[in-house]
């Protein structure tokens, strides 16, 4: 495509306390081979208490603020102020390569009524949590079925036709967007060429646990979607197993306690085995096997807490 035929694009970046990574993300955008004059960078700050806002102001064309609101509302605000006909959603902790925008625009121009997304890759030299949670296998790369909010190329008309992201969802709004786009007749495609490097993966078990709690807080609020998700039922079984252990202790019933612990073990092992088979990543040693099992136990524990949390807080 010649420069004269290139469309302008609006890159929308939601941000909350992202001072650690957002400057790298914005610099990468400014170094792209796509003409800078055709790139509008919009950062929407979600009430950051760190230096995010000041960094964003140095590199962005527009900086908007929305102190209260879920990530869907933050992205929608950016889209409302966008002036280009092509919207690109990128996260503040994601890095692109120099031709990323060019490839995405080319895909959109060659495929009408299609929305494109890309996968997230780990950084070089990831820590053990990143490595053993994502289980990347270069020989057998996998693509997720739905869009990720960290990497979306979409015509503004398509985005507006479904009223953008669901603003009520605390997480999973990208999968919901994918589903509604398909129901509206658009094609949703994930292309490996649009991969971004995700810098913001959890760096500790505490951070990993907190993030999974957050991801599961919508289970009961959007129950119709949850019941079709097999992981929802795995989490239900995990909670039942925990309850068996508690009741077994209260009733001094060893059999019930053993059944509870056995169920938790089986569910954790089954989840680990499923992930290994899907990714074709085969652990190199006992330490990696142990790490995978630990992460899956923390995952199920956190998802269980996220499911129960709205009930305890009386928000369901």
Any overview of this molecule?
Keywords: Cell membrane, Glycosyltransferase, Membrane, Transferase, Transmembrane, Transmembrane helix. InterPro entries: Glyco_trans_2-like (IPR001173), Nucleotide-diphossugar_trans (IPR029044). The chain crosses the membrane at residues 230-251, 257-277. This protein is α/β, with parallel strands linked by helices. The chain folds into 2 domains: 3-201, Spore Coat Polysaccharide Biosynthesis Protein SpsA, Chain A; 206-312, no CATH class. It is built from 12 helices and 10 strands. The protein has helices at 22-30, 52-59, 71-81, 100-110, 128-134, 156-161, 173-183, 205-215, 223-226, 230-251, 254-279, 286-312, and strands at 9-15, 39-45, 62-65, 86-90, 94-95, 114-117, 120-122, 151-155, 187-190, 196-198. Helix 1 (22-30) runs parallel beside helix 2 and helix 10 packs antiparallel against helix 11 (254-279). The longest helix is centred in the C-terminal third of the chain and has 27 residues, at 286-312. It is globular.
Short description:
By secondary structure, the chain is an alpha/beta fold. The protein is built from 12 helices and 10 strands.
Q: Report the uncertain regions.
A: none
CATH superfamily of the largest domain: Spore Coat Polysaccharide Biosynthesis Protein SpsA, Chain A
- Percent range for β-strand residues: 5-15%
Number of continuous helical runs = 12
Q: How would a crystallographer describe the biggest sheet?
A: 7 strands, mixed
CATH class wording of the largest domain: Alpha Beta
Question: Can you tell me the CATH topology of the largest domain?
Answer: Spore Coat Polysaccharide Biosynthesis Protein SpsA, Chain A
C-alpha Rg (nearest Å):
21 Å
Strand order of the largest sheet: 3-2-1-4-8-6-9
Mean pLDDT: 95
Total strand count, please?
Answer: 10
Morphology call: globular
């Amino acid at each position: 495509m010649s420069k004269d035929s290139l469309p302008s694009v609006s890159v929308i970046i939601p941000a909350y306390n992202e001072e650690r990574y957002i400057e790298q993300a914005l610099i990468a955008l400014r170094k792209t081979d796509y003409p800078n004059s055709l790139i509008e960078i919009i950062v929407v700050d979600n009430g950051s208490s760190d230096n995010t806002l000041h960094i964003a102001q140095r590199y962005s064309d527009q900086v908007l603020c929305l102190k209260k609101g879920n990530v869907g509302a933050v992205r929608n605000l950016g889209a409302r102020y966008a002036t280009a006909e092509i919207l690109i959603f990128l996260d503040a902790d994601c890095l692109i390569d120099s031709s990323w925008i060019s490839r995405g625009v080319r895909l959109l121009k060659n495929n009408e009524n299609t929305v494109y997304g890309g996968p997230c890759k780990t950084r070089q030299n990831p820590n053990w949590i990143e490595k053993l949670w994502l289980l990347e296998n270069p020989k057998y790369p996998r693509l997720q079925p739905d869009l990720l909010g960290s990497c979306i190329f979409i015509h503004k008309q398509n985005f507006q036709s479904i009223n953008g992201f669901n603003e009520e969802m605390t997480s999973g709004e990208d999968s919901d967007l994918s589903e509604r786009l398909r129901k509206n007749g658009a094609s949703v495609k994930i292309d490996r060429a649009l991969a971004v490097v995700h810098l913001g993966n959890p760096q500790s078990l505490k951070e990993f646990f907190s993030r999974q709690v957050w991801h599961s807080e919508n289970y009961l609020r959007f129950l119709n979607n949850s019941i079709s998700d097999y992981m929802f039922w795995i989490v239900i079984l995990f909670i039942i197993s925990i309850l068996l252990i508690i009741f077994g202790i209260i009733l001094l019933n060893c059999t019930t306690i053993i059944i509870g612990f056995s169920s938790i073990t089986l569910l954790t092992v089954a989840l680990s085995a499923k992930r290994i088979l899907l990714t074709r990543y085969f652990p190199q040693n006992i330490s990696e096997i142990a790490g995978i099992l630990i992460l899956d136990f923390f995952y199920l524990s956190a998802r269980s807490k996220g499911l129960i949390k709205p009930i305890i807080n009386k928000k369901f």
